[in-house]
Amino acid sequence: MNRFIGFLRKEFYHIFRDKRSMLILFGMPIVQIMLFGYVISTDLKDIKMAVLDHSKDEYSAEIINKITSSGYFSLTDNLKSVKEADAVFKKGDVKLILVFEPDFGAKLIKNTRANIQILTDATDPNMANLEVNYLQGILQNYNVEINSDKKAPFSIQPKTRMYFNSNLESVFMFIPGIMATILMLVSAMMTSISIAREKELGTMEVLLVSPLNPLQIILGKVTPYLALSFINALVIIGMGYFIFGVPILGSFTLLMTETILFIFLALSIGIFISTISKNQQVAMMLSMFGLMLPTIILSGFIFPIRNMPLPLQIISDLIPPKWFIVILKNIMLKGVGIEYVWKETLILIAMTMGFIGLSLKKFKIRLE
Amino acid sequence: MIYKNMDASIQVNNLSKSYGNVQALKNINLDIKSGELFGLIGPDGAGKTTLFRLLATLLLPDEGSAKLCEIDNVSEYKKIRNFLGYMPGKFSLYQDLSVIENLRFFATVFNTRIEDNMDMIRDIWVQIEPFKNRLAGQLSGGMKQKLALCCALIHQPKILLLDEPTTGVDSVSRSEFWQMLKGLKERGVTIVVATPYMDEANLCDRVALIQDGEILQVNTPDEIVEQFGKKLYAVKSNDNYQTLLDLREFKSTNSVFLFGQSLHYTDTKNEASIDELKTYLANKGRSSTVVEKIKPSIEDCFMALSTKSKAHE
Amino acid sequence: MNSKQKVIRVKNMYKKFGEFTANDDLSFEIEAGEIFGFLGANGAGKTTAIKILCGLSYPTSGEINVAGFDVYTERESVKRNIGYMSQKFSLYEDLTVFENIRFYGGIYGLSKSEINFKANDLLKKLDLEHARDKRISALPLGWKQKLAFSVAIFHDPKIVFLDEPTGGVDPVTRRQFWDLIYDAARAGITVFVTTHYMDEAEYCDRVSIMVDGKIEALNTPEKLKEQFHADDMDQVFLSLARKATNVE
Predict the structure, then answer these.
(1) Which of A60, B68, B156, C205 has the most CB atoms less than 10 A away?
(2) B104 and B237 in one domain?
(3) Is residue B207 located within the same domain as residue B249?
(4) What average pLDDT does range A201-229 have in this prediction?
(5) What is the pLDDT of residues B208-248, one digit of tens each?
(6) What is the mean pLDDT of residues A150-159?
(7) Residue B288 has pLDDT above 90, yes or no
(8) Residue B102 shares a structural domain with residue B186
(9) Do chains C and B touch (3 or more CB pairs under 8 A)?
(10) Of B225, B243, B263, which residue is a domain's last?
């Protein structure tokens, strides 16, 4: 026990004396949450819009008013001719142009139908789609409004409700993703680097020659990161809950248990990486490209898995964070219990066992 | 300690080790006695580090075996790790820990405390104690080595393996380091030191000269010098380098090397004719030539042995 | 001898890091073609001084002229006229012998035909023609060091700085290395060398010994031994270095 405490003390000295480690450990989670929470938002806000109004009557004015007062769009330009559209889009500020046909209001009253044309800058197709959808929604509402006193013989009125995230807050999706990324980073990358550093500096030679056995060395190296990862997980959930209002509908205990399971998995991956890398640089590269990139790209954190081609979907099944994100979303947003996530949990357990087994087999009691 | 009265000898039998195509050690045999200060002397790439790692149970031999304290170092490596002190060639302490933190850590690794072993390390410790709160990375080369030695000694090992402890260390620190090794030897610790510095051979009880994975000779420094064979002459003149070039052309030259302030010369005959030599050099235009018979050093012997073994190939 | 050109002139050179004075009032002059031994214990300030002379760092004060150029204002010219080799940095392990030579020749702006011609010459001299297309990593240490030195003087610099060039090399190769040094010196290249081997100090024309940032002795090996009543340079060095106060 004395040995173990001595080992831990040494490990904490390493961590607290290295500014880079400290930055990754404690700066990274906060920066990432702030980034995803505030900056990288896929919600629409103040999209710059131009109008080409050939009609200029009370109806077109009312519609423009409705659109700008929604908060999603802001009017920046009034065009005189459709020829200007090209130039405006090329300049890049305006993403959307609304065109009213001549005699818009008159046609609407007389013929009961009038045309609006929506032009968008589709260099970012997802955003363009989103903008058009929002705009159509506003126009739809207006339609209903002006027809409210008339009796339409048949009409379907869809009423939608977004389950689990009624305001479509993107931060709800990012908190689980950030959890998975940060825990992977801290647990896997930091442990693999710290073990590889001992190899690089030659201190591993001395430790191996001592009576310490491999298990003691590994436990000594990973325990500090287990503790720090757990603190990080709490910080992330706390920030999500208190700053962004991400709910925790399910059992907090279950959430924490699953988190610890995932930390164990990440640690065992970290140990595995360290056993196959000679120095810090290799460990860093392996963790970056073998873990971080897949975690961000293929885990469903940012890009939806169901839109991926089949081979990538299969690969994403092999990526541990994918399952962890599913579990997190289910517990936090849907509030379900273990009976809905036992499958994913089992997968994580199996993966953990696998990596621990591999590492124990690969960890050398000698230098070769 | 359980191992108090054990025989701390080292036996190496027919040890060979290859990395891919490179044969790092060829059929090494060594018999190091308990309590001996044994030197392993050879240039970089001779195989010293490989031999140390084999002894330290960090590598497995391709062929042959080694016993430390009469215990086989492959099948019972765990036992050996309890009474072995090992200092690798690279400075292998934690640079971001202070002197005292390093020492405390290695004490806990061996399940012991600094206080219980102060006796063993006191002589060395007093020299680094003034800097005990300094980070190890900020120590000078000599100080680092002293700290590393302390850490290797903290569990009172019976056998101490030191891989090039004095490389890159200035000559003041080097001579201090050897003083400490002598002190340790008096405590009955078997010490094996690898070094590329030939002059350090004279500080050992016995030495093995090693080059290209082969042991050229094992003996006491005095015996090695005695077996030099030929008579050795120191030649000096007003221009040593030109004299060197001249002597390379001389018909009776067996070998000639720059050696500090003079040249070391051996003749094809056992005994050289000093007059003939002087006349030759005078004709070449050298003046104030001095030729005298001298006692060879280990370095002379090493060069003679290594050129002989190269010629055999 | 007075007419000989001075290729390094150092006058009252200081280098301070905060409170710590690494180089404390160094003054010396070195002649063209001289082999100058620059000795000192670890931490005596040798590396700091070499960095300044090579134009890699600025001194705190002092007048320093290397190869005819001022180290404050003409660093690029200084660098173009010196060669540098150390035990640590020598050659690219994953390039072949010839690729290394070509690379360094290219850095100093030598033409293709010049590089080819000089490379053949160099390989012949080192007896390395058979290894021309071998990777550096496959060569024994002694060859690497000899090759590294030859590459360092490939562009015919006025001065070559050697930082512990023979560390760990076997005694026979070490002497072959000194053959190369003498050869270069005879061709007029000034050699500025540091070493831990005291026998090598004897091979130098003049030797300076630094203690605690100051040059405590500077003379020919013969004169130094006389001055300190010593049999060899080792004793000279020890009697000076033992006086060191801040060796930590």
Answers:
(1) B68
(2) no
(3) no
(4) 87
(5) 999 889 999 999 999 999 988 889 999 988 888 899 999 99
(6) 68
(7) no
(8) yes
(9) yes
(10) B225
Where residue B143 sits, what CATH number does that domain have?
Answer: 3.40.50.300
Domain count, chain B: 2
Give residue-wise pLDDT tens across range C98-145: 999 999 999 888 899 999 999 999 999 888 899 999 998 888 878 888
Strand, helix or coil for residue B41: strand
Q: Which positions in chain B touch A210 (Cβ < 8 Å)?
A: 81, 106, 109-110
Q: Is residue A44 a contact partner of residue A95, using CB atoms and an 8 Å limit? A: no
Beta-carbon count within 10 A of C102 CB: 18
Q: Does residue B275 lie within any of the structural domains? A: yes
**CATH domain A47-146 topology:** abc type-2 transporter like fold (3.40.1710)
Full residue range of the structural domain in which residue B198 is found: 10-225
Confidence of residue A147 (pLDDT cuts 50, 70, 90): confident
Q: In the numeric block, which tokens belong to residue A172?
A: 């709800």
From the list B131, B139, B258, the residue facing C178 with the nearest CB is B258
Q: Which two tokens stand for residue B80?
A: 């050996």
Which tens digits make up the pLDDT trace of B61-78? 999 999 999 999 888 888
Of C141, C199, C222, nearest to B44 by CB-CB distance is C141
At A312-348, the pLDDT tens digits run 888 889 989 999 999 999 998 888 888 889 999 999 9
Nearest-CA distance from A318 to chain B in Å?
36
CA distance B40 to B213: 12
**What are the tokens at C160?**
């070559």
| Residues B114 and B54 both lie in one domain | yes
Residues of B in contact with C203 (CB under 8 A): 240, 258, 260
Q: Report how far residue A206's alpha carbon sits from residue A213's, in angstroms, rounded to the nearest whole number.
A: 12
Over residues A58-107, the pLDDT tens digits come to 888 888 898 888 888 888 888 888 888 888 888 888 888 989 988 888 88
Exposure b/e, A159-187, CB count within 10 A at least 16 = b: eeeeeeeeeebebbbbbbbbbbbbbbbbb
ipTM of the complex: 0.79
Contact A52, A85 (CB under 8 A): yes
- In angstroms and rounded to an integer, the radius of gyration of the C-alpha atoms of chain A is 28
Given this model, what pLDDT does residue A347 score? 95
| Residue B236 located in a structural domain | yes
Interface with chain B: mutation pick from C42, C139, C144, highest number of B CBs within 10 Å:
C42
Same structural domain, B121 and B244: no
CB–CB contact A7 B78 (8 Å): no
SS3 B215: strand
pLDDT of the residue at C237: 87
Residues of B in contact with C196 (CB under 8 A): 168-171
Is there a domain that residue B305 lies in? no
Contacts 24+ apart (CB under 8 A), B113-122: B114/B154, B117/B153, B117/B154, B117/B155, B117/B156, B120/B153, B120/B154, B120/B156, B120/B187, B121/B150, B121/B153, B121/B154
